[in-house]
Amino acid sequence: MIAIDTNVLVRYLVQDDPAQAKQATQFIESSCTDDEPCFIGQIVLCELAWVLESNYGQNRENIAQVIEELLQVGQLEVQQPEVVWRALSDYKNSNADFPDHLLARVNQSAGCDFTATFDKKASKQPAFKLVPRSSAS
User: Fold this and answer.
1) pTM of the full predicted structure?
2) Which of 32, 45, 95, 125 is least surrounded by CB atoms within 10 angstroms?
C-alpha cells in the first residue's frame, strides 16, 4: 500500500502549481486503484483542513465536502473511516475546527471519556472539557 502525503494531496486537489499538480495527478491516478487504494492518514486530513482554510481561504462547507469526497473515493483508503465520518458530522454541526473534532473522536475510540483542553471553542463540544483554572495558592 502507498500512503499519500498532504502536499501531494493538496497539489492534486487545488491544482495551483502546474508542475507539481501534473505530477500529483499522474501519480495518484496511476498508483491509486480500486484493487490497491492509496492510504490517507488522519494526520493528512488534519493538515489538509488547516491548509485549505489558512492558505486557500476555503470555508467550512468546502472543507467538509472535500473530506466527505475523499471518504467516498474507492481508490483511497482513509484511516479509521468510521471515526472520520463521526468527526466530519461533528464538524458540520459546530464551530470548532475539523482537527479538534477528529482528535476527540480518535480519543473516544481509544476509550477516553473526554479530551481535556484549553481551547474554549472546542470545549463547547461534548467530547471536550475545559481544563479548570487553578486557584491561587
Assistant:
1) 0.89
2) 95
Which distant-in-sequence residues (6+ apart) come within 8 Å of 79 by Cβ?
A: 39, 40, 41, 42
Distances (CA, A) of 60 to 16, 45, 52, 66, 79: 20, 14, 10, 10, 21
Query: What ranges do the domains of the chain cover?
Result: 1-79, 94-132
Biggest CA–CA distance in the chain, Å, is 63
Cβ-based neighbour number of residue 38 at 10 Å: 19
43: cell is 494526520
Per-residue pLDDT band for 90 (boundaries 50, 70, 90) equals very high
**8 HSE (CA, 13 A, CB side):** 17
Residue 121 has pLDDT above 90, yes or no: no
Instruction: Taking the CA atoms of 27, 32, 38 and 43 in sequence, report the sign of the dihedral they define.
Output: positive
What residues form DSSP beta bridges with 40? 78
* Beta bridge partner(s), residue 115: 128
Reply yes or no on whether the pLDDT at 61 is more than 80: yes
Q: Evaluate whether 48 touches 66 at the Cβ level (below 8 Å).
A: yes
